[in-house]
Amino acid sequence: MSAAPLVGYSSSSSEDEDEAKAGAQAQPGAGSCPRAQSPLPSQRLPVPDSVLHMFLGTEEGPEDDSAKHGGRVRTFPHERGNWATHVYVPYEAKEEFLDLLDMLLPRAQTYVPRLVRMEAFHLSLSQSVVLRHHWILPFVQALKDRMASFQGFFFIANRVKIYTNQEKTRTFVGLEVTSGHAQFLDLVSEVDRVMEEFDLTTFYQDPSFHISLAWCVGDARLQLEGQCLRELQVNYRYGSTEGAERVTGCVPGVAGELTGPEG
Predict the structure, then answer these.
(1) Which domain CATH number covers 185?
(2) Coil, strand or helix: which one is 145?
(3) Mean pLDDT calculated for residue range 205-234
(4) For residue 48, what are the contacts with CB-CB under 8 A and spacing of at least 6?
(5) φ and ψ at 245, to 5 degrees?
(6) Recorded E.C. number(s) (predicted)?
(7) Catalytic residue among 53, 133, 134, 210
(8) What is the pLDDT of residue 48?
(9) Residue 78: active-site member
(10) Structural domain of residue 123, as residue ranges?
């Protein structure tokens, strides 16, 4: 398990770069000679299409094409200068964990074939929120200050559970934390205080801390809960290569960290 909870950022746009323009108008000098009649204004030449379309991406928001992002749908509207932000503890997957995932995913895919394995693993400490660009550094520093005094702890995740995001646009198969829950609540309490300082949404009132294993677009709870969930729990309990019945992890110490912009 990595030592620090991370702050994941997704750049909605670049920092505002508009500059005010000022125009100056020349004044005729006193006592000057009468001027000759001004010639008729010349006809403006058309601007080539290639030039007109050269800078379309600099002022307009990014195109929301879900096909380019695995079918994922933006959960809040694009706005210039905003960064999507998510605080989490990364989970370092060991070989046994990946073997277990390779066993569980095909079983779940017999019920929902579109399920996709997660590329990285973590435990969330916040909802996705939106930060203005100039808030990023003070936000990260506030997290570091809040987390500096935390001691390391161990946790166990050994219960398969089905989750959706708040908008029900994505479904996840996860392993729920059953030991270490109180320590994660303490972490969330400090993260929530930082969120309140920046007038951002705090975490859920009764959170279920978990490691997501796989995901798919849409609300697939009907297909995954019930018989599928029971089979996954049985396979998890008896199917690991070492006969282990739990996934364990360690949070040795915590601090905020900026991971950089995403897509």
Answers:
(1) 3.90.1140.10
(2) helix
(3) 96
(4) none
(5) -110, 15
(6) 3.1.4.-
(7) 210
(8) 56
(9) no
(10) 6-11+76-251
Catalytic residue, candidates 69, 122, 134, 181: 122
> What residue has token string 């600099």?
58
Is 53 an annotated catalytic residue?
no
CA distance 200 to 191: 11
Residue 187 pLDDT > 80:
yes
Total number of domains constituting the chain: 1
pTM, whole model, 2 decimals? 0.68
> Smallest Cα–Cα separation from 239: which of 90, 106, 92?
106
Q: Is residue 62 part of a domain?
A: no
Query: Is 65 a member of any domain?
Result: no
Query: Is residue 138 situated within a structural domain?
Result: yes
Cβ pair 249, 209 in contact under 8 A = no
Q: How many CA atoms are closer than 13 Å to the CA of 121, on its beta-carbon side?
A: 23
The amino acid occupying position 41 is: P
Q: For residue 253, what are its two tokens?
A: 């110490």
| Residue whose structure tokens are 């200050």 | 145
Residues 6+ apart with CB under 8 A from 192: 126, 202, 203
Work out the pLDDT band at 231, boundaries 50, 70, 90.
very high
Domain assignment present for 33:
no
Pairing of strands 153-164, 121-124: unpaired
* Amino acid letter, 131: L
When the pLDDT of each residue in the chain is averaged and rounded to a whole number, the result is: 76
